[in-house]
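Hi R.,

Here are the chain sequences for the assembly we discussed:
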Amino acid sequence: MNETIVSYLGETLGYSFNWAGTLAIFFIASLVLASIMALIGGLGTYAERKISADIQMRYGPNRVGPYGILQFLADGVKMLLKEDCIPRDSDRFIFKLSPMLCLVGVLASLAVLPTSSGFILANLNVGIFYLLGATSVVGVGIFLGGYSSNSKWAMLGGMRGAAQIISYEVPVTLTILSIVLIAGGLSMNTLVGGQGAFPNDWYIFHNPFSFIGFFVYFIGSLAETNRAPFDIPEAESELVSGYHTEFSGMRFAFFALSEYIEVFVLCAIAAALFLGGYNIPFGLQEHGLLGQLLQLAVFFTKSFFLYYVVIWIRWTLPRMRVDHLMILCWKYLTPIALLNLVGTAVWMYCFDGKSFYMILKQLFVASGQ
Amino acid sequence: MDVYLPIFLLIFIALLIIFGALILSYLIRPSNPSLIKQTAYECGELPVGTAWANFNVRFYVVALVFIIFDVESALMFPVVAVYKRFLQLGSGGAVLLSLLVFIGVLIQGVIYCWRKGDLDWIKSYRTSSDVRAKGLK
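And here is the predicted structure of the full complex:
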């Protein structure tokens, strides 16, 4: 098992890197990953508008480039050219700090994104724990952004955002705990490596509790990224634009970019924890570079599918009311997640860690004899 | 220690992106601030008072409940991570039992908050068990 991308490359090429080589490879790999994610964030805004147009029988952006695919570049140039307005009464230091916190938190969480068995940037032994911590920084950024603007809309949005993000972190963490129970480790390669290429080996079908857990995690991650139907922190019909009402130009762009990248990261984690991650069948992962590229393709296909589902949900369901939102979190998702955790632990104990499919198979084999 | 290097590099790259974009934007964007432009947006009216007023105490209660749950789930991480290894060693029962006791306390906490009405967004005194005991329902 490779710890980092450097150890993977060293093993493959049969060459041990000194500290300068290590630093250079890490830097280039981080830069490539960050730019791919920035591209995904940008294309995410395009995909959002195009899919919403599809759902509402409109055209969507179709002027800039073929099928309007360069729309996000045009938006970026426009945001670069916008005047930077900072409210006179705001807390200027925190106002400037908050978009940075959002983007730094999201990009820092990319370090443990399990894109393939070799191309994982750093396989930390506390991977999923680190990821939970890094994505929580976004919540701080959102709250500080709302607080520092000294605008009532932004203040309300920031308070709601903070309450919602911290509330939904509880069921998400508990669900991840139940997956850690099955896998028996916190590093991303352990979590993904315990699964197989076909759905019968995925953790979502490991036992009935993890099947429910997937939906709890998915709903919770929708709320953590402020996506509809949980987008009350930036509810545009009641709070103007929520916590980023006062932000303009590039500072607004950082908020938007970090939101779209975070959605992708949480979809990728859902794909990695429940849907088998980068696993490919028939021992194809042994084929060097080809195997790695296939793993990348499988991983990104699953993540983009979930990304599509997130956008689909946004344009299908109406927004929830704030008290319903809190009731859903504390009275439904949290008890369900707790019982899932208990159920998974008992299942692991009773059936010796076997999955549902393996037990069925054993029963069939036993009855056949 | 070099396993943790990518994290710092990613933070560095994030800062590079942020300050690069802000400096580029500073060079090419217009800047003609005015008094009206720099007031907080309040639907076209001049803002009345500051936004840093007292806010609903509900947010405070939610944050308190969250802290309890989050600390407890953080405490469960190490136990959960070694559970499978203990099962393979044949002593999973002890870990399972301690986990169940811990989660039992946690569930009791949920039930307590629920009964006290702290999980409702708008706290209704009629759901509080004290009032119900006095027959004021």
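The mean pLDDT of chain A is 85. Chain A is about 65% helix and 0% strand.

Let me know if anything looks off.

Best,
T.
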